[in-house]
């Protein structure tokens, strides 16, 4: 008769697990003992799926009786981590019946088996296993401690596990082990035949190949970490991880690398802004994320948990897996259409596509599918795990937690679950919507419903929701803290996103003054829009070109309607973002031609494919480390894939035939040699087309984007090779300030208006003017009216920005360039 408690023995090698099982079974043949060793493909390591199958099978055999359960023993800390993840996937009533035991595998298994054979319950079996620590050196297996110390007390001073390598180092990169370094770490360790863990000294550590579990540890700058590895390449893997950490995971410049580890920042509250010395009563202070001034009643955005189908009953796991795959595919296609359509949400949709493809989400959901669990439940549990990992322990990736939940709800919707808040126009039209957080999808729905503004407790200026709000001209203030959630529905508020503050229920005199100020601002904006079609002229009679950045036909139309003189940046990524394969030359030429046709006779600057960094396009199979912000991105990627670049150059030249004036430029140029090589490749494509007799037009000018400080400092050399330069102010700022523009944890350092950025711009402009080259600036800096005036006074010829910013910038230039 089977005993009420069964055992699962987890080891990195299958023969070890089976050998220990055989030994324990000889002592207690009536106990259900399962051996789980090695990876699914027979290698050294552990298998999540195999452990899950063993635990659920033993639970089923043990039955539902009180006192029945499973005791799990393991050989190394990384096996413990895998087993812990298995427990997290179980239903609470199942997980409560499973105990993980930190004990020597051989002695612990024998003690546990003999105790279970006597009819003991799980707690007693686990206690006997723990008490089996060997009293003398060498008596225990796999290098376990000689006395029953906790895992937290063990460190590298202990006698190492046979074949295991360990070392410690200190995190040096400013943001610690957030998502991007964790992705770089995962990419690195996969190159070695070794099982690698990373964590605080003495802890079991997290599997270095798992991005989310590494991030969730919250390891920050200045923290000491311990790297452990087992397997044939263990020493090489540890050395490689140490080298990567010493280099700051690619996030340190040379000066910082030489300076040693930076001092860790003091903990701070993520969601709340710093309080002013003496806040005015009734005033909530936050951060302006999308400019504007509105007076309106407050209305709360209510969000409820999705209504999921019940667990239990009978479900075919394979059929549920197919349902889930179809729902994900549907959402992916919707995101792809949005990305290809251009507009302020195009880049965000592309980023969401990459996030939706994260294998961790799918693996977590598939591991939860069984006969009692439908696809909706399995998927949502996996999404919540990923969300909590991102939100709970790492400030710098908290905003991505919102994106994960938004995506999760979208897939639930495709599965037939009503997972979104109900937004009724009659409830929120003309109101300031108050929320703890808003999803990117919320912003679009609220904009259509006619809301006046958004007052958000959390969030950040670089969040995807904030970017969309700016594209919709929807005033938004974030980081107002939990106090904003106490504002009652219907309370009049003044939301001033210019200063980042919200006045709650102010006196009528203040409300009247704010309404008048809002009307004045609106009138100024309408006047600017009416005048935007005319060209801005300097006092000396020379024109200033105010252009727009576009990514598709919709934005091209918006640029024309906004009064843009030209297109200063046509992003060709739209041709790739939603494609499972690369489009051919004919397809690219046709779609580019459609965009150019929308511009009429306006000049367009076409930028070749800019991928990498935060643009990890599915069709190109990019990874966050190799193609990250400091990796193989932009023109570097194109040079590494010459056929892709050649196809695109030919397509651009063909699309330019019969259109307005077309200039061509390359992104992410660092040296003059790269600029020279790009120009030669453009000419080579033109010669090919001419030899074939294919209709085409040579670009009127060939230039490069200056986004790298090295290029700005050597602008004289680069200008000798090209006809024009265009400053990518967003990327240039993040490289000058060493602050990732997509990471709100360093948002206070990402300052396009910092004097260091201006000094570098002055150096660049002086060099370009001396060489007689046209110089443009595009991005956030160009679209800010005060900065735009300063840039033109500095000698910049052209400004390029989001279409909605064109009227205000033209108005500022007219009023202040006289």
TrEMBL record:
Domain named PTS EIIA type-4 is located at: 4-142
What reaction does this catalyse?
dihydroxyacetone + phosphoenolpyruvate = dihydroxyacetone phosphate + pyruvate; L-histidyl-[protein] + phosphoenolpyruvate = N(pros)-phospho-L-histidyl-[protein] + pyruvate
Q: From what superkingdom does this record's organism come?
A: Bacteria
Write out the entry's keywords from A to Z.
Cytoplasm, Kinase, Magnesium, Metal-binding, Phosphotransferase system, Sugar transport, Transferase, Transport
Q: What class of enzyme is it?
A: transferase
* EC assignment: 2.7.1.121, 2.7.3.9
Q: Which PANTHER family match?
A: PHOSPHOENOLPYRUVATE-PROTEIN PHOSPHOTRANSFERASE (PTHR46244)
By what name is this protein known? Phosphocarrier protein HPr
Q: Which organism is it from?
A: Actinopolymorpha rutila
């Amino acid at each position: 008769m089977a005993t009420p408690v069964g055992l699962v023995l987890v080891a990195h090698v299958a023969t070890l697990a089976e050998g220990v099982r055989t030994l324990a079974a000889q002592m207690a043949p009536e106990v259900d003992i399962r051996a789980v060793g090695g990876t699914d493909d027979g290698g050294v390591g552990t298998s999540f799926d195999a452990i899950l199958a063993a635990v659920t099978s033993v639970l089923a055999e043990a039955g539902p009786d009180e006192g029945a359960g499973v005791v799990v023993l393991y050989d190394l800390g990384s096996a413990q981590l895998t087993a812990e993840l298995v427990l997290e996937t179980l239903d609470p009533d199942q997980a409560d019946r499973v105990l993980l035991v930190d004990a020597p595998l051989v002695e612990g298994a024998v003690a546990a088996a003999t105790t279970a054979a006597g009819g003991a319950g799980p707690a007693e079996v686990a206690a006997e296993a723990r008490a089996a620590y060997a009293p003398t050196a060498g008596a225990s297996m796999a290098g376990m401690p000689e006395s029953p110390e906790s895992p937290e007390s063990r460190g590298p001073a202990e006698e190492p596990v046979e074949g295991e390598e360990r070392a410690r180092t200190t995190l040096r990169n400013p943001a610690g082990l957030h998502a991007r370094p964790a992705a770089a770490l995962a990419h690195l360790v996969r190159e070695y035949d070794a099982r690698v863990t990373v964590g605080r000294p003495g802890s079991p550590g997290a599997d270095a190949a798992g991005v989310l579990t590494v991030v969730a540890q919250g390891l920050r700058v200045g923290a000491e970490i311990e790297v452990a590895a087992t397997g044939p390449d263990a020493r090489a893997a540890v050395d490689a991880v140490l080298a990567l950490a010493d280099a700051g995971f690619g996030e340190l410049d040379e000066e910082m690398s030489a300076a040693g580890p930076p001092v860790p920042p003091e903990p701070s509250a993520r969601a709340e802004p710093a309080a002013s010395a003496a806040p005015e009563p009734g005033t909530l202070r936050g951060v302006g994320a999308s400019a504007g001034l509105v007076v309106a009643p407050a209305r709360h955005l209510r969000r409820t948990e999705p209504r999921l189908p019940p667990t239990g009953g009978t479900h075919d796991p394979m059929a549920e897996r197919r349902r889930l795959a179809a729902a994900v595919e549907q959402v992916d296609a919707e995101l792809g259409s949005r990305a290809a359509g251009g507009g302020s949400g195009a880049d965000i949709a592309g980023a969401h596509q990459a996030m939706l493809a994260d294998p961790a989400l799918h693996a977590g959901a598939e591991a939860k599918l069984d006969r009692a669990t439908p696809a909706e439940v399995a998927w949502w549990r996996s999404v919540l795990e990923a969300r909590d990992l991102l939100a709970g322990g790492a400030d710098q990736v908290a905003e991505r937690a919102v994106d994960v939940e938004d995506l999760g709800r979208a897939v639930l919707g495709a599965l037939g679950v009503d997972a979104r808040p109900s937004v009724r126009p009659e409830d929120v039209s003309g109101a300031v919507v108050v929320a703890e957080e808003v999803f990117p999808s919320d912003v679009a729905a609220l904009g259509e419903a006619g809301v006046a503004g958004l007052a958000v407790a959390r969030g950040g200026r670089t969040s995807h929701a904030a970017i969309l709000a700016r594209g919709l001209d929807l005033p938004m203030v974030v980081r107002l803290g939990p106090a904003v959630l106490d504002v009652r529905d219907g309370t009049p508020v003044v939301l001033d996103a210019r200063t980042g503050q919200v006045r709650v229920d102010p006196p009528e005199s203040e409300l009247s003054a704010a309404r008048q100020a809002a009307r004045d601002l609106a009138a100024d904006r309408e006047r600017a829009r009416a005048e935007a079609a005319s060209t801005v002229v300097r006092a000396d009679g020379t024109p200033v070109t105010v252009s727009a950045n576009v990514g598709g036909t919709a934005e091209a139309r918006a640029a024309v309607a906004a009064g843009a003189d030209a297109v200063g940046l046509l992003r060709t990524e739209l041709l790739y973002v939603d494609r499972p394969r690369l489009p051919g030359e004919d397809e690219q030429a046709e779609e580019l031609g459609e965009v150019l046709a929308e511009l009429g006779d306006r000049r367009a600057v076409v930028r070749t494919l800019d991928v990498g960094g935060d643009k990890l396009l599915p069709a190109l199979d990019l990874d966050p480390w190799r193609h990250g912000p400091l990796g193989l991105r932009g023109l570097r990627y194109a040079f590494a894939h010459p056929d892709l670049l050649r196809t695109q150059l030919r397509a651009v030249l063909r699309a330019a035939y019969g259109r307005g004036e077309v200039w061509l430029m390359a992104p992410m140029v660092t040296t003059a040699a790269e600029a020279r090589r790009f120009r030669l490749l453009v000419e080579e494509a033109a010669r090919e087309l001419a030899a074939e007799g294919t209709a085409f037009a040579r670009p009127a000018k060939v230039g490069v984007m200056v986004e790298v400080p090295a290029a700005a400092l050597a602008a004289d050399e680069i200008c000798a090779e090209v006809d024009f330069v265009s400053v990518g102010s967003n990327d240039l700022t993040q490289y000058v300030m060493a602050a990732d523009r997509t990471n709100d944890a360093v948002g206070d350092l990402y300052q396009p208006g910092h004097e260091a950025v201006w000094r570098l711009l002055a150096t660049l402009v002086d060099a370009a003017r001396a060489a007689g080259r046209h110089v443009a600036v595009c991005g956030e800096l160009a679209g800010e009216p005060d900065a735009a005036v300063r840039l033109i006074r500095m000698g910049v010829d052209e400004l390029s920005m989001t279409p909605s910013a064109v009227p205000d910038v033209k108005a500022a230039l007219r009023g202040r360039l006289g």
